[in-house]
Amino acid sequence: MSQPSIRIAVGDYDRTRALVDGSVGVQGFETRFATGDLEAIFSQAFQTAEYEVTELSFSNFLIASVRGGCPYLALPIFPSRSFRHSAVYVRAGSGIATPADLAGKRIGLREYSNTVALVARGMLSDEYGFDPGSCEWFAGDVDHVERDAIDPRNWPKGVSIRAVQGRTLSSMIEAGELDALIAYTPPAAFGHAGVGRLFPDWREVEKDYYARTRRFPIMHVIALRRDVAEANPSLPKALLAAFDQAKQAAQDRLAIHQALPIMLPWMQAEAEGTQALMGRDFWPYGFEANRDMIETQIRWSHEQGLIPRRPTAEELFPGC
Questions:
Q1: pLDDT tens digits for 214-252?
Q2: Which domains does the chain have, with CATH numbers?
Q3: Kindly report the CA angle at 294 between 69 and 182, in degrees rounded to 5?
Q4: Are 85 and 68 spatial neighbours (Cβ–Cβ below 8 Å)?
Q5: Across 66-158, where does the E strand assignment appear?
Q6: What predicted TM-score, i.e. pTM, was given to this entire model?
């Protein structure tokens, strides 16, 4: 009897590579993987739900789930995580020297509702009393004009947000039309035109944040289409086991000393330092290990007006 076949859309990371190359399988199922541009994967999932299993933006998944009609349910598998202190860029001459100075400023971002923006605003609010509602927000493409239209669907009421089309946010901050920018990669303006990070010593700030809060923000989640979950009750656990095994394979590679598997000269020192701060399983999967982070990001989303109510974590991760 042939095994059921499922298609999985996921980023090509060290922690997913053993799945993508077939060295780790999903027990009881045949799998086909699609990798590629993550923004395209997310868009396809929300528009057509083509894939049985897909990686999703945690923030936009949360919004779609709470507002109703999301075809996917979440599994406690988090292929992308990141601290976001480093994602806040400011312009010299803007009057921003500390996080408190962001109040009332003009801030650009790719998408108001994406997870990098959610986490950056949430961290700034918790740690420094930042009020997103005090600012003017500009949503648009950062370095290259990519979109014909900026989708305002997930914009919260009561917040000043303008769509930027036909030009880039990088050019606007260089021209002095923006005071700050939230971006998941350094913008083209970074390092010149007086544009630098709000937290120049971001690595130490992020390490301190983790040491105090024990929070490692979730960027993306693996989601399973609801109809597929209902038809295959063994699939959620099988997926969690497979993704966890692939992640372990990636972590084991960090302990290789003879010939470095990645091009970082001090890879072992970096891995050892990370484990000393965050523990051996510094990138945990599973529900209970991530409950606080999940609940924190739900709170941030509600506080920022992205969702009308705060669901329980169990509502997003049924059966966990």
A1: 999 999 999 999 999 999 999 999 999 999 999 999 999
A2: 5-82+217-316 (3.40.190.10), 85-213 (3.40.190)
A3: 90
A4: no
A5: 72-81, 88-91, 106-109, 136-139
A6: 0.95
